[in-house]
Fold this sequence. Notes:
Elements: H1 7-36, H2 43-47, H3 57-63, H4 68-99, H5 104-112, H6 119-130, H7 147-155, H8 170-198, H9 203-210, H10 215-243, H11 247-253, H12 269-279, H13 281-307
Helix pairs in contact: 1-13, 3-13, 4-8, 4-10, 6-11, 8-10, 10-13, 12-13
Amino acid sequence: MVNSKHKWKAWLYLSPAIILLLIFTVWPIINTVQLAFMENYDIMQALGGKKFTLGFGNFVSVLQYDGFLQMLGTTVLLCVITVPVSTMLALLIAVCLNSIKFLNRFLQTIFFLPYVTNSIAIGMVFAAMFNIIGNVPGLDSSLVSWGIFNDLLGVFGIKPINWINMGSGYWENIFVMVVYIVWNALPFKILILLGALQSVNKQYYDAAKVDGTSRARTFWRITVPLLSPMITYVVITGFIGGFKEYSSIVGIFGDTMGPPGNPGQLQTMVGFIYDSIKKNQGKASAAAIILFAIILVVTLINLKVSKKNTHY
């Protein structure tokens, strides 16, 4: 306990962090909520002293936007696919790393590298892997490159697929994004689950060995239940991060949020918010609050569902 006579020192030490939180977190949230309910808000007119009426026009405008359901569907689709896949892969990799004693630290470093690498730079690398160089005037057809991923498909006799170039389809684009997002999400989840694994009491596994329990049964009956709190954590944070997906799509497709000739094909909620900021800050604020409400509902559902399957 801090002596009451010295509490002012504690507040003094905390004041820089508190001031930064108030300026860059609390005030933007308050301002966003305020702008969301201002009808026809314009920053230049606001600076001139104009007062704006309050209403729900910005929310109606967002919900009536022609591409709202499509961008919401894309956002949900990416979450529903990538979160379970990345969580399961991270759990399997964490179990494997935990059982490997030789080069354990080195392998952990290798798996963690994507987490500290700029997502835009990673997206550019993935774009090159799935890119097709062809149909260029004056280019010899023998020099056409189909990208590393298509070269791998060619080994199995599968014809090259147009993944991200002009004329590529929605599902091809989604596949590329799923591969990238899963790969990019693994390091953090592996780190969390590996740390949890290393804190598990080894007596559980020793007892399973004495009983002759198979590895698969040990995994599902011991490892998964004991790691359920951490699994719940990475699933919830995964959904929160998935609903805010934006930089990964920009890294591969650019700010058009889609392949050449079909911009906006992979538009997400956050992408819509960024685009709206340039035109209508009130509309962007309303979209941000709608996104927050969706994330809140999904998080509460996750907590409700996981409560029955989480063992502390």
